[in-house]
Amino acid sequence: MNRTPFRIFLPALYALLFLIFLLTVSYYYASYRRGLWEKDIRNSLLETLVMKKSRIEKALSSRVYYTKGIAAFVSIQPDITDREFYNLAQQLVQNDPVISTMSLSRDGIINAIYPLAGHEAAIGLNLMAHPKRKEVVEKTIRTRKTFIAGPVELIEGGVAFISYTPIFTKNTDSSERFWGMTDIVIKKDELFEDAGLVDTENNFEFAMRGMDGTGENGAVFFGDSAVFDQTPVEIKINLPDGNWILAATPLKGWTHFFDQDKTLDYIMIISAFIISILFWLLLRTQFKVNANEKELKAVFRSMQNLIIEFSDEGEYIRIPETNKELLYKEEKQLLGKRVTEIFDSEMADLFMSAIKRCLALKDLVEIEYPLDISGKKHWFSARISYKSPHRVIMNAYDITDRKENEQNLRKSEQRMKELNDVKDKFFSIIAHDLRSPVGSFKMLTEIMLNEVECADQKKNKRMLTSIHSASSNLYDLLENLLSWSHTQRNSLIINKEEHNLFHLADDAIDSHIVNAEIKNVALINEVKEDARIVCDQYVTLTIIRNLVSNALKFTPTKGKIVVSNQTIEKDGIRYQGVTVTDTGVGIAADRLGTIFNFKLADTTIGTANEQGSGLGLMLCREFSEKQGGFITIQSEIKKGTTVTFALPLS
Hints:
Strand order of the largest sheet: 2-1-5-4-3
Strand content: 15-25%
Radius of gyration: 50 Å
């Protein structure tokens, strides 16, 4: 008692552990994939930064070269005149939109500037007297390197970089003497435009830091400073003295790229759940099979039947532990012997014929036979089922009492025949339709019980399908019988209220959805979702259910049944019409006139041998009329049938 509940939850526990394992694998796989993806993105972005670095350094060095050229010229021509400088500067920078000005500062004092127009005030400016420029000049003198300062705001407006290059001349003793400075003003925006640098490009955001060439320790002078807070890809822009840091990150952040792959993550998670559920179902089924196997073994040990395994030659192969009191002879006298050695020729031929037929058809064969056991005549019913190409299983049980009862019943049947002849058609049909599914239950369940050890899954599925079909027919019949009894006793109370017609149709269709799937027939609800109907809910459900049931019976495989609605006007009254249309076998024109008359209607068999009593359509008409409505039917052979019932809208 303590172990049973735990075993019930074992499949769920194993499935849960399996789910955790799958989710863990999915998580690590996703992390690994994201790592690869980030690496690829960073490598691609680094290639972009390398290209931009090359363009910026090229654009910058080509301008710095101007100052180096001037410095080289002055170092060999220290007596250069202002006019000579203007001519030289004009040749170098007059067509360069990136250069704002170029100046020459003898002994640190600006003595010439190109272009002069608009910059006259700069003439005579002592760089050594200016605090910031003095620091730059002293650094260039000390390092003898070109220094790029800025970006700085210009007096005349705009932002620019200033490239300072020191000029040295040689004395007569070959020692070098500081002559002065030459510098150019490089417009910031024009420089970056010339280098093709923008703050956003291809969903990436760029920024640069390192004012005055101070690299990663300098201030941000291009783009959004927040770029450096998002683990950017960085590259150094080399300057003659110092460097800038160019950085880039995705415009919407790194997680934006990873979020694009979430669909696959969701699929993996959902798949993990589905696989775990299937795993749970498989385990649960296996546990049930094991439990059923133990139960069936116990059942076999207690059953009253006799089970014998025969070879294709009629030899007794095995006799399981069942009711061996029904054996014609003792077990040891039968095993290894053939039926031709045990019975007379007539009885042996009966057994051999049944065995051969079972092996040929690979299907169940039933026989009845009498045997004298212990001086008393017994009747047996045997079911011979296929096991293998050379083996069959016979399941026999004593039907002596039934045979005696049958003889008595024959006499009773003769007496009852006269009474049955005077019964009206209703009771004869009901009796027939009730007996058919109940008989199917009995036969099919006995077959499944007897063949459980050699279970053929396809065969079991067919039998279960038949059981379900029979149960559905029986249920529909009992429902209609109950409804009919209410109408006959005038005990049916119509309680009309407003209901959603779509939901009523959906409920009616749901009760037949399994049978439709078994038969491979499409059930479609095309009723408008906001459609309303004034009706008795139970009575109207019965109408729709019966119409769908009839349509399903007479619609072949791959057919279609559609439930729809429309407003109908008749004799000045507006009705809510409900139509059930099928693609079935149709109804002959000569039967349409009597189809709603229970006494005149014929019982017909459906396309899959479904039973029908004719009671359903009679109830549909009666229930429609009791609610103030009507019902019509249209049909054409091999094209289908359309049945419409209508109820007043108010």
